[in-house]
Amino acid sequence: MPHPSDLESARTSEAASPRTLIQDVYQRLRADIISGELKPGTRLRAEHLKSIYNVSGATMREALGLLVSDALVIAREQRGFIVAPVSLEDLADITATRAMLEAHAVRMAIRQGDDEWEAELSGAFHRLSRAEERRAGATADDYWEACNKKFHEALVAGCQSQWTRHFLTILYRQSERYRRIARFNAPPDRDVHAEHVAIYEAAIARDEERAGEVIELHINSTLDVLRGLGEGVLAEEGYQLSPRIRA
Amino acid sequence: MPHPSDLESARTSEAASPRTLIQDVYQRLRADIISGELKPGTRLRAEHLKSIYNVSGATMREALGLLVSDALVIAREQRGFIVAPVSLEDLADITATRAMLEAHAVRMAIRQGDDEWEAELSGAFHRLSRAEERRAGATADDYWEACNKKFHEALVAGCQSQWTRHFLTILYRQSERYRRIARFNAPPDRDVHAEHVAIYEAAIARDEERAGEVIELHINSTLDVLRGLGEGVLAEEGYQLSPRIRA
DNA sequence: ACAAGTCATAATCTCGAGATTTTATCAAAT
DNA sequence: ATTTGATAAAATCTCGAGATTATGACTTGT
Questions:
Q1: Superfamily for B88-230?
Q2: PROSITE patterns, alphabetically (chains A, B) (predicted)?
Q3: With an 8 Å Cβ cutoff, are B77 and A23 in contact?
Q4: Cα(A128)–Cα(A89) distance, rounded to whole angstroms?
């Protein structure tokens, strides 16, 4: 039975080589926004971008419209598109909402997850652990980011609610953007790996209550790190014009 | 402080006469889908629709792309758009997720809401009460639907989390569609008004716990009504081709 | 010197037609 | 009789240009 968010789910998994130009541009644009190459607040003029992405203006507009779904770009009527601004207040909202939703999803997964879920989770945890002992305290890299994403996806994969997972996908992308914006400014002084271990063990032990608590603490603590840096980091990185875009 | 979902919020309130054709078509299409005039599963061929809505094919496509954000339309690569299908399983997911999120939002509103929130809520409750004593057990009408929507919006308006409200907006639209699809098949044998009274009183009394419980029961009971009718109602109404569209 | 109004520039929004892909039809072979 | 393959039709996807609207600079008046 197809579900409204199947499309989103498809987007989440490995970006199956898009067969339409719109999907292609959509994915590239999204990556550029999340990676921070397109800074928050940047005006997205279709006239300029179409020469960069080598597509027509109409195609560009459609891709931008798709990005609005993810709340990564904002459409102002008759005034074009801009990259969604960032703020500490927004980050706090994203974090709190995600912590609540993901705790709920994990509890659900623990209740409903089958052997396949456990197996996938175990694999994702193993991959993440290796990535974490390899970088050993260094700042986050792309590979770690991918492993972390897969671990969190595997955690909630056992949750039967497609809508809950859909919303979590959106929120994860948002938090990922914040994490990358402040990537080089945030030295991880806390033991992230220990937190992941606690989450994993609680999940495998089928301890709903503990898993919910731990995951909530885990997500909320990422906010504290950024908050400690102050709003300056965001203001400094954001609202910059003429961003450099990858070739 | 602008927020990604400001656009959505704007859509929610009185549809300020859209200044672009795309927004106009988007709103009309959305209304036609939610009202049930465009049945679930219907193929949305831009070539056909453009003559109905009197716009170009490209404009039509953009409006359809916007609908994908709301998960009311599904885009299949190179194979066009269709109205999102319905199923009892999907409705159960929508309902459960909304019950959880709205209970959370109401508790938050009770904690954070100010006098203005109480005043607006009181007004919305009054309006809804009048609408309910007027129809007195009859099937739901458009005016009641509008009042109900405003009541629920007023309830969560005090919740500071824009993301939570954003997700609730999406879920409400989904549930509204299901309600209208089975509108004439579902005689309200329960006392909906009593439930609304309980919610309102708990909210005004600032009783977080009770308000959360009551709203969760309230939302979940709407599922029970539809479930009692069986999947037949949805199958019967849905998956029909060549829908009739308003002039 | 400052404010308000006016006009040129630039960007967005919209359109109709052409290129590509999918879907349906139909004949032929096992 | 069923399946396979090729062909025709329909729909989607993409483009470049024209119409509409917003932005910024300039002039004018107090």
A1: GntR ligand-binding domain-like (1.20.120.530)
A2: HTH_GNTR
A3: yes
A4: 30
